[in-house]
Amino acid sequence: MHAEIIATGSELLLGEVVDTNSTFIARQLRDIGLNLYFKTVVGDNEARMAEALSIALKRSDVIITTGGLGPTIDDVTRPAIARAVDRPLVFRADLLDQIQARFRAYGVPMGDNNRRQAYVPDGATPIENPVGTAPAFIVEHGGRLIISLPGVPREMEYLIEHAVLPYLKTKLDLKDVIVIRTLHTVGQGESRIDEAIGDLEAASNPTVGLSAKAGQVDIRIAAKAATRAEAEALNATMEQTVRERVGKFIFGVDADTLENVVARVLNDRALTLATVECGTGGLLGGRLSTIGTAFRGGLTVSDLPFDLTSVIAAANDVRSTQASDLALSVSLGRSPDDPNLKLVVALTGLDQPATIERGFGGHSALAAQWASTAALGLVWRKLVDW
């Protein structure tokens, strides 16, 4: 049994608004053990919304829609659902009473177009919306469930928590939970991690998946079980196997960030760090500025050459001026005779300088994040081994 989300609103397709509703719903479904297989975004068009619903009805047990329940012409969810299930829209006087009561509570008159919100597909079960004017509703059709919710996040979140989740748990007799464990790695690309644990990615419970970021690869482990404790035990067994294969690249789990992990290692060893960077827009120092007294400060310069001798010298200079135990120097840019981005990193203050020299073939917009992650990964790796 699985669910699907259909978010409606042309503003989502135009990039004017980020679809946070689907993210919230996905997490809530995960917590009650209902798998989510598909998410669709549709503009304010009745025919296209009806088409998306028709597709969803063929492949998903539960379809949750958000948006399109307002009073205006471009709020098309109600007629689109009616079209998809081949039922007429019917007027509900009880819903109009609820809408009028909301407007009286707000102390403003109700417009004539708000009457549209009192229409629902024939046979639908209304869900009262005590925090807004748009009634939600549930349609059962061919053994499937369509749950239609407002797009206003505050209203949607309230109805999910107080009405939809209790309904789904009872209606579908949901007793399982899904628990996620995320392992964060640095120092290896997605393809290398995949080579090491690819067979685990074919497992069914827990499932294992990869998520590549700029300079970092996350390994997601997701278990489904009757209790949270059972799911965590499944995850722990899988995590042990993953660590046996790529453990030396795992710097943290779940909410850990690389900069915070570096801070813990520095504090554990009573060490301080200073930085100098070129070509990163100050991102490295910005990330470290949150870690506290272990970071002595950073410099951003515009003319650090792309050779190890210069980068090591810059690290030694900032280490001296900032009176830090360690110094990290980063130079990111292009040489006059090479159109490709190049990264040179040096960490000094150890027994011997630790360095990185490599090119960057990704999108230039990601280069600074990639470079700062590579540099912090070098600090973490060397301090753990030191």
Describe the structure.
The two termini are 50 Å apart. The chain is α/β, with parallel strands linked by helices. α3 (46-59) packs across α4 (77-84) and α9 (258-268) runs parallel beside α12 (367-385). It has helices at 10-13, 20-31, 46-59, 77-84, 93-106, 153-171, 190-197, 228-246, 258-268, 283-288, 308-321, 367-385, and strands at 2-8, 35-42, 62-66, 89-91, 119-121, 125-127, 136-141, 144-149, 177-186, 207-213, 216-225, 250-253, 273-278, 295-301, 326-333, 341-348, 354-360. It is elongated. It folds into 3 domains: 2-171, 3-Layer(aba) Sandwich (Molybdenum Cofactor Biosythetic Enzyme, Chain A); 177-253, Alpha-Beta Plaits (2-Layer Sandwich), CATH 3.30.70.2860; 265-385, CinA-like (Maf protein). The chain is built from 12 helices and 17 strands. The mean pLDDT is 94. Strands 2-1-3-8-7-6 form a 6-stranded mixed β-sheet, with helices on both faces.
As a whole number of angstroms, the C-alpha radius of gyration is 27 Å
**Average of pLDDT:** 94
CATH topology of the largest domain: Molybdenum Cofactor Biosythetic Enzyme, Chain A
General shape? elongated
Strand order of the largest sheet: 2-1-3-8-7-6
Oligomer: single chain
The structural domain count equals 3
Unreliable sequence segments: none
Q: SS-based structural class?
A: alpha/beta
**For the terminal residues, how far apart are their CA atoms?**
50 Å
